[in-house]
Amino acid sequence: MRVNGKPYRTIWVNSDDEKIIQVIDQRYLPHKFVIEDLSSLSGAVTAIKDMHVRGAGLIGATAAYGMYLAAMEAPEDGSFDNFMEKAGERLKSSRPTAVNLSWAVDRQLTAIEDGTSAGDKILIALKSAGEIADMDAENCRRIGEHGFEIISEISRRKNGKTVNILTHCNAGWLAFVDFGTATAPIYAAFDKGIDLHVWVDETRPRNQGASLTAWELENQGVPYTIISDNAGGHLMQHGMVDMVLVGSDRTTVTGDVANKTGTYLKALAALDNRVPFYVALPSSTFDWELEDGINGIPIEERGADEVRYIEGLCEGEIKRVLLTPENSRAANYAFDVTPARLVTRLITEKGICRPDRKSILEMFPENKR
Question: What's the Cα-to-Cα distance from 12 to each of 98, 232, 266, 348, rounded to whole Å?
Fold first, then answer.
């Protein structure tokens, strides 16, 4: 996608030094565009854990490249594979909810088994990481194609009048390698001339909607309006939302969806107001072993200061401001689970399906047990 008119992905190999992986450091957006160099396993773990990068697909791609960086650090003797196993565990523990992370690590561990030497394994890890990143971008592009049909149909029903889409958090290209999931259908529809407008939830406490989704849409020229998280229900009650379109960090084989906290409340409001609620996700976001999302998906609890403080631009500098009484306790549950019964359809790279085991496995029969 574009930044000031120039195409970017969220992660890439430095063209001058393939031992360096470069990422967009999202902590500074939308006020500063910063590119960070990752040159070690520890650097990749920190980038994921402290949210220099975030979003299911990008976490997975960063973990894949993190395994490549780990391979360059691994001893060349018989302990190489053991080192890589431990590196994979470090990466997996950096953020527990998004399943793409463990999927990418396991794929890398399987790939390097084909290497006969440390040098071979390093080259395989680099090639495999690139394939994971390319697949993530291609899957998101295809999600955009399938989701476009839904937006196009709404536009036809409205005789070409503006299609109003509500989204939550950032499931855009910043959350993946390119295109995004929830944003991919929006970009596809906008590029094909459909009149649309996006309601952007601010998404407290880290404000990924207000800072990241809005920044993305601004760069792509898509009309949008930022709203407070609690305004979505009001908009739905008054017919100002035609569809809700969100992403996922982990979806069970039965269709339960874990996404940024607050998604569940949007789904409840959508049901009450008969607004269709769609979830866009690549197959790497499915947890094929899990059936009960509410009791089975681990919900990350992040630091209280993300709730107590807020960051923003003040007199040309990014500053941190305390919102609460100084000694207030705060709980910070980063995700919630939307039960499958509240989801209208899932939009995947293979097409659109109902959020139930039968439909999901018919679309992805290779994952039947």
Answer: 21, 36, 34, 24
Q: Is 0.85 surpassed by the pTM of this model?
A: yes
- Is 249 a catalytic site residue? yes
What domains are there in the chain, each with its CATH number?
2-135 (1.20.120.420), 143-367 (3.40.50.10470)
Provide the residue type at 134 as one letter. D
Sheet holding 224-227, edge to edge: 224-227, 196-201, 163-167, 243-246, 277-280, 345-348, 351-353
Question: Which residue among 136, 178, 201, 249 is the active-site one?
Answer: 249
Residue 159 has which token pair?
A: 């005789």
pLDDT digits (tens, 9 = 90+) for 300-349: 999 999 999 999 999 999 999 999 999 999 999 999 999 999 999 999 99
